[in-house]
Design goal:
Elements lengths: L2 H12 L11 E2 L5 E5 L4 H6 L6 H10 L9 E5 L6 E2 L2 E2 L4 H16 L6 E5 L1 H8 L4 H4 L3 E4 L2 E6 L2 H6 L4 H16 L8 E3 L4 H13 L4 E8 L2 E10 L2 E6 L10 H15 L6 E3 L2 H12 L6 E4 H8 L7 H8 L8 H7 L6 H27 L3 H21 L1 E3 L1 H30 L11 H11 L11 H9 L5 H24 L8 E2 L1 E4 L11 E4 L19 E2 L4 E8 L2 H9 L3 H13 L4 H10 L11 E2 L2 E2 L1 H12 L5 H8 L3 H14 L2 H16 L1 E3 L5 E3 L7 H29 L8 E6 L2 E7 L3 H12 L3 E3 L2 E3 L3 E5 L13 E2 L3
Parallel strand pairs: 2-3, 2-6, 6-8, 9-12, 10-13, 13-14
Antiparallel strand pairs: 1-3, 4-5, 7-8, 10-11, 11-12, 15-16, 15-19, 17-18, 20-26, 20-29, 21-22, 23-24, 25-26, 27-28, 29-30
Helix pairs in contact: 1-4, 4-5, 9-10, 11-16, 12-15, 13-15, 14-15, 16-28, 17-20, 19-20, 23-24, 24-26, 25-26, 28-29
């Protein structure tokens, strides 16, 4: 067929089933490349040609680099009528979609020369392959018959999400590889269901060949189902302990197999490779008592170091660094298929190992090319085993105090919910109305439809509730509703998040510490529940929650806190002479108060006249205002946001904002320098060598705030992590002492009572080692505290200064 004949035949098939055609397929019917998108836009309908609008131009601008133009392609859409208008995107009925899918398959079957198909977006992916989830499948190449399908996102979606542009370009580069004949699919040979002898021989091979060994575990029903190992990107073994129905080994056989596995994982000479190896290591350490000596290369952490703002899951890495198609759905697909077999699960485990190894090889090269390999191996990976140990060992919980908290706060939350409902009944006059205070839709309906309150939009978040409270038309009874809701939410969060957190059978709380959990400040640790759902976020524990955590018998807590660390960093990096002088005076003097000095300068009163406390008679002082300005305004916070986070009246916040910037003009100059650096180099580098990369267009206040905050927050996070492994690796550090808790600017160790001062000195020594910023040393002083050893129960909440 020529193009006219193809269009007429398509119309003759579509019209009898009631399909409206606004834009036919078009282009060269003899082309080797077909491009399939979802549906035409307004411009395409107007011109009756696919891919001529804004997203089409975006696509052609990218394809032109590979010599691909409209003239040498066939172009079409799955759905040939416009779906998006001023009202939004229309949902296509399932029956109509099925007709469109069948027709586009017929349309492509008429193009006898097509060898390659560029699949744009989820609608095209579903129509041509029966698969869904283009965000997972993008970057994959599928061979169907004699045709090769290269999958990527719809260009319109990429334009709306600029951070995806780099990955869109990589996907199109794969199309170029395919069309040039340079594409070779990554093949893997899996060994599953090994005999005891085969499993042990494989472990011996992994140990003897002295190559990097990728390992991975799969978990079912809270137990380790299998352990996979591979020292080749194309061959691996899954040592599965189960079949579909039962255990595969006797107890004695499994004991020997696990000892063989331990010889590989525990050998300091084995270069272990993993994807998010912290999880595998702490799971095996706690659940299976298999000690992973140290993960040598973690692909997740390597990618996080290279591209902090990108996704780091193995599915994403697979498409970026290998030619293997997306396969991560296979982990659960075997369960959902009527003919699914558990053997597919074991094969999936082998794929994880081989793909992880393949990615590590490419990532290693990239780390070297970007001169980040030293930071990766000597800092990032050096810290990981210490974080694994923090999870495996955990912290003891006072079960009696936890039970007391549970009973008290369960009753308090019920009482506060009833007070909230009483306030609602009074404000609405409807005693039958009982909105759930935990339901955002029900609270939104209450505040904005029933009570007709005025805020900034219809958000039910805390900040907008403050705006509602301050609005002059909010009645007293309406304010009672808002205040009762706030009281309920505060105590409910404390009860549900902290008091109700699960502890393990041995009475310990185990949290997972992540090196990749804070995207805006890579280098800073985050913490959360572990993978068996006990523990909690230990870094946001309110002071009263810390009463539940206690030292083991004969042990105590020793703690240090870096004093005003981020503000000090800003003083040095922004080169603010008076701040540097004040911070150094405070460090050397020990009694000089930098916040009082700042308040003195802002409000033009003598230093000695500034209050020494933040609150007097339940009212905030000018010291509090100055301190909150320093903590927020350094990072481009505006006066309205300052009012929200401090509780200041708006006019007071505006005055404080203006005073702060008038005495510190260096801040705005520093912001401008950072922005100029990012625009010029598209990256920022911390004193540790950690890099933040601009992966999209630079626009908007949120991006600029992240740019300004990156170096201080990331540097202090890395500093605190560094102190952890420096202490543990110091030959003078007691072998019975370990840092167990991290809260951003502080670390807390558990040690024998008799060793407390010795541990405190070592922690202080490393914490106060200088950072070099713009070639100038910055020493951040730290305060060391402990829980006195003479207390019967030594609680994390009871820290007092430790004289060294």
């Amino acid at each position: 067929m020529n193009i006219g004949e193809l269009q007429r035949e398509f119309a003759s098939r579509a019209q009898p089933i009631g399909l409206q055609i606004q834009c036919f397929g078009d282009g060269d019917v003899d082309a080797q490349l077909a491009i399939v998108a979802e549906a035409p836009g307004e411009q395409e309908v107007r011109m009756r040609m696919p891919l001529v609008g804004g997203s089409g131009k975006y696509l052609w601008d990218h394809l032109r680099r590979f010599g691909i133009t409209r003239r040498n392609c066939y172009l079409t859409n799955v759905i040939k009528r416009q779906l998006v208008d001023a009202a939004g995107k229309e949902k296509v009925p399932a029956n109509e979609l099925s007709h469109w899918q069948g027709l586009v398959q017929w349309e492509l079957s008429c193009l006898k020369n097509v060898k390659y198909v560029l699949v744009l977006g989820n609608a095209a992916l579903e129509a041509l392959s029966g698969r869904s989830g283009v965000d997972q499948w993008r970057g994959s190449v599928l061979t169907v018959g004699e045709r090769m399908y290269v999958i990527t996102n719809n260009p319109a979606h990429v334009m709306r999400t600029p951070s995806m542009e780099a990955w869109f370009s990589l996907d199109l580069a794969k199309l170029d590889m395919v069309m040039r004949g340079n594409w070779r699919e990554h093949k893997i040979i899996p060994h599953i269901d090994p005999s005891p002898t085969e499993a042990m021989q494989w472990c011996e091979r992994m140990a003897d060949e002295r190559k990097p060994v990728a390992f991975d575990i799969e978990v079912t029903a809270g137990e380790t189902a299998c352990i996979g190992m591979a020292n080749s990107a194309h061959e691996g073994m899954c040592i599965n302990f189960r079949s579909a129905a039962s255990n595969r080994f006797t107890t004695a056989e499994e004991r020997y197999i696990r000892r063989s596995i331990q010889r590989v994982l525990g050998d300091s000479a084995t270069r272990l490779v993993a994807q998010n190896g912290n999880f595998d290591a702490y799971w095996l350490g706690y659940k299976d008592r298999l000690a992973v000596h140290r993960v040598w290369f973690d692909t997740l952490l390597a990618h996080h170091l290279l591209y902090p703002s990108a996704p780091h899951d193995l599915g994403f890495l697979t498409t970026q660094y290998t030619t293997h198609p997306y396969y991560k759905n296979e982990r659960v697909d075997w369960r959902e298929k009527s003919d699914g077999k558990i053997e597919d699960f074991w094969v999936y485990n082998v794929k994880d190992c081989c793909i992880t190894l393949a990615c590590s090889e490419k990532l290693h090269v990239e780390l070297k090319r970007q001169k980040l390999d030293d930071l990766f191996f000597n800092h990032v990976m050096r810290a990981q085993p210490h974080l694994t140990e923090m999870t495996v060992c955990g912290v003891l919980v006072d079960a009696k105090r936890k039970a007391e908290f549970d009973a008290y706060y369960a009753q308090l939350v019920d009482e506060l919910e009833q007070k909230f409902l009483d306030a609602v009944h009074t404000a609405t006059g409807d005693t039958t109305l009982c909105p759930n205070p935990r339901s955002a839709p029900q609270i939104s309906d209450l505040l904005f439809r029933r009570l007709k309150l005025t805020g900034r939009g219809h958000s039910t978040a805390d900040n907008n509730r403050k705006h509602i409270l301050a609005h002059p038309r909010t009645r007293p009874e309406d304010k009672n509703v808002i205040l009762a809701l706030a009281a309920y939410k505060k105590e409910h969060k404390f009860y549900s998040v902290y008091v109700s957190s699960r502890i393990d059978p041995d009475g310990r709380a185990r949290s997972e510490y992540k090196q990749f959990g804070t995207q805006s400040a890579p280098g800073r640790l985050s913490s959360a529940q572990n993978m068996w759902h006990s523990g909690s976020n230990m870094q946001n524990q309110p002071p009263k929650a810390r009463e539940m955590y206690i030292a083991d018998p004969g042990y105590t807590f020793v703690y240090y806190d870096l004093s005003q660390a981020e503000a000090r960093y800003v003083a040095w990096d922004a080169n603010i002479p008076k701040w540097k002088q004040q911070f150094e005076q405070a460090r050397l003097d020990g009694k000089y108060d930098c916040h009082r000095a700042l308040a003195s300068e802002m409000f033009k009163i003598p230093y000695d006249d500034v209050p020494t406390k933040d609150f007097v008679d339940e009212k905030y002082t000018i010291r509090y205002i100055a301190k909150r300005c320093r903590h927020g305004l350094n990072y481009r916070m505006g006066p309205d946001r300052l009012a929200e986070v401090t509780g200041l009246a708006y006019d007071e916040a505006v005055r404080a904002y203006n005073l702060y910037h008038s005495i510190t003009p260096e801040l705005r100059k520093w912001w401008s320098e950072l922005e100029a650096t990012v625009r010029r180099e598209r990256k920022l580098v911390t004193p540790f060598g950690r890099v933040w990369r601009l992966m999209e267009r630079l626009e908007g206040d949120e991006q600029l705030e992240a740019i300004v905050a990156f170096k201080p927050q990331s540097t202090i996070g890395d500093k605190n992590t560094q102190v952890m492994y420096q202490c543990h690796e110091d030959s003078a550090w007691p072998h019975t002492a370990r840092i167990r808790l991290n809260v951003h600017d502080s670390n807390t160790a558990l040690c024998r009572i008799a060793d407390a001062k010795h541990v405190g000195r070592i922690m202080k020594h490393y914490a106060e080692r200088p950072l070099y910023i713009r070639g100038e040393p910055l020493i951040i002083p730290c305060e060391v505290k402990w829980v006195p050893g003479d207390r019967e129960v030594r609680r994390w909440s009871d820290l007092v200064p430790l004289e060294l």
